[in-house]
Design goal:
alpha/beta; 6 helices; about 25% helix; disordered N terminus
């Protein structure tokens, strides 16, 4: 209970401040180069047996700024792990496991940080943006690390992996979050407790993913010792979200002509 209350206060403050190995068809790039090298299409040639099993991992980096002047002092590993999509099909997704150098906890807690809305392109994947210093939720993640929590950040389905990103698809997002925790616990390169306390945290799209993970956990991942969840501003009604964004700095109505593209004058032609 103390962990739950403490996490809730600290997470809210942070928001305000801002296994088996499968062979892959090509190797992952180094952590320093994740955000700068072009990504080639790929498919895993096989998947491990269990959800949360790690397919591949490699050292990475976490910068707070795009100039890469401020590097966060934590071990960083980019991972690829197995999860399940909304249709029940096993798929591979990527993510990042971050572990602080020191922690006051005997059993280091893991926070599953579900990212907010990032975009649809592969370059929007949080694992790439953390390495490039462009992740807009970097400060809340660092705040959790500063408090001694290990953090795992999923890229969700379709960000950095084949297919279209499943924005606000309840089952796919919730499962990706829960399996990211399993992957962090099973990652050999990071010594995290197999049965330690877990917290779920997310805002915006991450709030929806966190709520889904909390709902699915009793049946999908009953072994995880989840102590609490921070669910912030999930976009529950997409029609209202669209209406609120329309005409704002984030979107423009399709019926409103762009200043740079004036409407064309209608023309007619007569065929003889």
């Amino acid at each position: 209970m103390l962990f739950r209350r403490t996490l809730g206060r600290r997470a809210a403050a942070a928001v305000a401040a801002t296994a088996a190995t499968a062979t892959l068809s090509f190797p992952l790039t180094s952590g320093e180069a994740i955000a700068t090298q072009p990504r080639s299409p790929w498919q895993p040639t096989g998947l491990p047996a269990e959800n949360g099993d790690v397919l591949s991992s490699e050292p990475g980096v976490f910068y707070l700024d795009p100039l890469k002047a401020i590097k966060v002092d934590a071990s960083v590993h980019r991972i690829m792990y197995r999860t399940t999509d909304r249709a029940g099909k096993a798929i591979a997704v990527t993510g990042t496991v971050l572990n602080p150098a020191t922690s006051p906890y005997r059993q280091r807690p893991i926070v599953a940080f579900a990212p907010g809305t990032q975009g649809l392109a592969d370059k929007c994947a949080p694992s790439r943006q953390l390495a490039e210093g462009t992740e807009y939720e970097a400060l809340p993640i660092k705040k959790l690390l500063d408090q001694g929590y290990a953090v795992v950040v999923t890229d969700y389905q379709g960000l950095g992996t084949p297919g279209v990103h499943t924005y606000m698809a309840r089952e796919a997002q919730g499962r990706a979050v829960l399996d990211s925790v399993r992957a962090a616990q099973r990652l050999d390169a990071v010594d995290l407790p197999d049965a330690g306390p877990i917290a779920l945290y997310g805002y915006s799209q991450g709030g929806g993913a966190t709520a889904s993970a909390a709902e699915l956990a009793p049946t999908y991942a009953p072994e995880l010792k989840i102590k609490g969840a921070v669910v912030g501003a999930p976009p529950a009604d997409m029609n209202k979200v669209a209406a609120g964004m329309d005409g704002s700095a984030y979107g423009r109505s399709s019926t409103t002509p762009s200043p740079a593209s004036p409407p064309r004058t209608a023309s007619t032609s007569t065929r003889t």
